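Illustration 12: Succinylglutamate desuccinylase/aspartoacylase family protein.
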Amino acid sequence: MKKQSQKELIILKETILPGESKTINMEIAKLQTMTKLKIPIIVERSKKPGPTVLFSAGLHGDEINGVEIVRQLITQKINKPVIGTIICIPVLNVFGFVNQSRQFPDGRDLNRVFPGSKTGSLASRFAYYILKEVIPHVDYIVDFHAGGASRFNAPQIRIVPNDTELKALSEVFNAPFGLYSKNISGSFRNSCTKLGKKILLFEGGKSAHIDLHITKEGIEGSKRFLEHLNMLSSKHKAIQPLKNTIYIKKSSWIRANSSGMFHVEVKINSFVEKGQLLATISDPYGKVEHKVKAPNSGYIINVNDASIVYQGDAIFHISNTLEND
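Figure caption equivalent — predicted structure in token form:
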């Protein structure tokens, strides 16, 4: 476990002393109406030294389930540490959150412009200041995401391969699934990793939607994470799940073989056998019905919730190879 001296913490020229609580408003730009958009950075510090953990969400403005998870960590006072410091940024992309859009107002995907530039695009400037002002103070990060559009993700932690410390932290979080995935150039995760920070990426649910089960998985995993670091208050009890994380080494998308009305036959999280019926795609006139079958045995970790799909749409995400295969 990482320990750091309990000294003054300075973010955006604001000082937070040991034992203090403070909300710092990050203001990078104004809207075209000259309205300020503030990104609250909520800091809770113990008087006792310890690690610094960041819980972040809303990197894509329409992924609100992660926002709900971090919000509940705050409202339930889970973010008040026994030792060390907890920083919460419930909405990284306030611009997108206001418009319920994945992108920044400049049309860019914030999660593809890191590490950013002080003189670059609006999204690039924001990325720059997050890495400059917040991340240097942090030891561990849990960043919450959701599936894009109507694609509903099973709760899962994504980590880079061959990192034993990240694997151990993932096992502590204990989401139902763990996916090995390489860092993407320009992503928040990639930049944080390059700065030596240990980051878990949580995926669960879908855009523009809050799911109670996904929220609970995120909260309980976060409590287990903090308990492991000796940061969780005795007022809160981390619930241990009945099953350990299932780690997936390889997975693939199943795409619609035709356009039409989409009728799902299996549940997310379920294990299916090769050739098992997953869904049917039909025309609205009762004449045509196409079957979608599993190309291999595996776990269904994403299901498209759309009622209408088009040929080529991603409709299921299925595991191909498990860690112990």
